[in-house]
Amino acid sequence: TVAILNYINMTVAQTSIRANEIATRKLLGADNKSIILQGLLESIVMIFITSILGFAIALLLRPYFENVLNSQIHLETYLSVQYIVIGLSSLILIGIIAGIIPALMTSKFQPIEILKGRYKRKLKSIYSKIFTSFQYTVSIVLIIVGFFILLQFNFLIKNNIGVDKNRTLIISQPCSASQKAALKNEIMKIPDVEAASFTAGNPIDGGNNNTEEINGESVGFQIFTVDSSFYQIFDIDITPTGMHQLGGVIMNEQSMNILNVDTTNYIAKFGNNEYPVTGVAKDFHFRPLTKPIGPAFIQPMTDDRYPWSLLVKISPNADLFETAKQIKETHTKFIGHSLQEIKFIDETINQWYEKESRLSQLITIFSVFSIVITVMGIFAMALYQVEQRKKEIAIRKINGATVIQVLNILNYDSVKYVTLAFIIGAPISYYIVNRWLENFAYRISITPIVFLVALLIVLSLTLISVSIMTWQAANANPVKSLSSE
């Protein structure tokens, strides 16, 4: 849509340059129909040329997009007769949509109006107030929305979940229950290993889900079974209750509220069992941030409990990959066969947001394309404004105006258009971003700084574009500009 709008803007801006050509053709007998057909034909030819170039670029970028999407893109399948017919029909339709407005605008004025300059005045009064403002509004909305999407995905990936994810390893199916103590002892002998903990469910793998009927509703509770070293790896804020009984559990705040635990004796009734609550954990994340924190409790691992995983925390100044290699070799030597899976926690967390990550990369790509298209649109606006005011620039130069004064006058008008577009586009952007962020349980706040950055980007690009073309027009021979009128 933006590309089509840009084409319309560029074409209409160029019609002021071709006004005399149109007048001459009409004086030589060309009717409105032939003028319109020529405009549509030029638009369709341009669409075909750009489509061929676009398809060639798509072929060049296909390996990159296949990597981002993690799938094969078979562009060759769209070269069948059916798709070619559909494609050609679509291109013709787009060409007509893109060309119809400029074609109609160039055909509706009489030759005498064009030659007297009325065409430019009418074009300026109608076109500049609507299309220019709309173009800037679209540009501002695209930039604001794109920025917020990238910021939200960055927030998801980098959010602190209570563990140093870049230097904590997780080993799946590490050993049997009887081997836990011996293996942990060997792992802790490795230099730069800070802590090691066996778990049967932890915040990274999501734990074991148990469903309980609470007030007529099914509620899922996540259960994490861990040894005492677990709290050296995960920074979970726990408030002791004073209970020290065997079989005691630590419950998060969500569980305490849902089970309505009596804070006098701290006994939690779960199913047919009662558990003494030895501590209350401040709610911590154990699932992607696209979902809210749910009820969970942590129970101690018994000696006969089979571990699902082994978490190993590496000291800050260690060579991560060398230490990871030693851990893997130690484990392999201990159990007699190679590890099934060993990886840093950040890899798992990145997998949580794999869909969002791929979408973020695509959005980044399309945001760049959108900005490029936006710059082209801004260039069209600048070209249009300068072309419309060449006579004015020439007269001001003859009357002694400097180039800087001319620049200030035209840039002032550009600032007015951008400001109007920002006033319109900012509320639209806020609505779009706010609705999109509602899909996330944890999200960034909508800050004014992003809106201001978008405004500065569009304003800067506009001022640069207008200044360049105004500079050229202001330094041109004013006699030549006036004679062309």
Outline the structure in words.
- This protein has 485 residues and is α+β, with helices and mostly antiparallel strands.
- The chain contains 16 helices and eleven strands.
- Strands 1, 2, 3, 4, 5, 6, 7, 8, 9, 10 and 11 form an eleven-stranded mixed sheet that branches.
- The longest helix has 41 residues.
- The protein is elongated, with a radius of gyration of 33 Å.
- The mean pLDDT is 80.
Helical fraction equals: 55-70%
Number of helical segments?
Answer: 16
Low-confidence runs: none
Could you say which structural class the secondary elements and strand pairing correspond to?
Answer: alpha+beta
Mean pLDDT: 80
Proportion in β-strands:
5-15%
Break the fold down into its secondary structure elements and pairings.
Elements lengths: L1 H14 L3 H9 L4 H38 L11 H27 L3 H5 L2 H41 L9 E5 L7 H9 L4 E8 L7 E7 L2 E10 L3 H4 L4 E3 L8 E4 H7 L7 E4 L2 E9 L14 E5 L8 E6 L5 H16 L6 E3 H8 L1 H35 L1 H9 L4 H35 L10 H27 L3 H6 L2
Parallel strand pairs: 4-9, 6-8
Antiparallel strand pairs: 1-10, 1-11, 2-4, 2-10, 3-4, 5-8, 6-9, 7-8
List keywords for this structure.
485 residues, alpha+beta, 16 helices
Could you give a short description of this structure?
The protein has helices at residues 2-15, 19-27, 32-69, 81-107, 111-115, 118-158, 180-188, 230-233, 253-259, 320-335, 345-352, 354-388, 390-398, 403-437, 448-474, 478-483, and strands at 168-172, 193-200, 208-214, 217-226, 238-240, 249-252, 267-270, 273-281, 296-300, 309-314, 342-344. The protein has 485 residues and is an alpha+beta fold. The chain is elongated, with a radius of gyration of 33 Å.
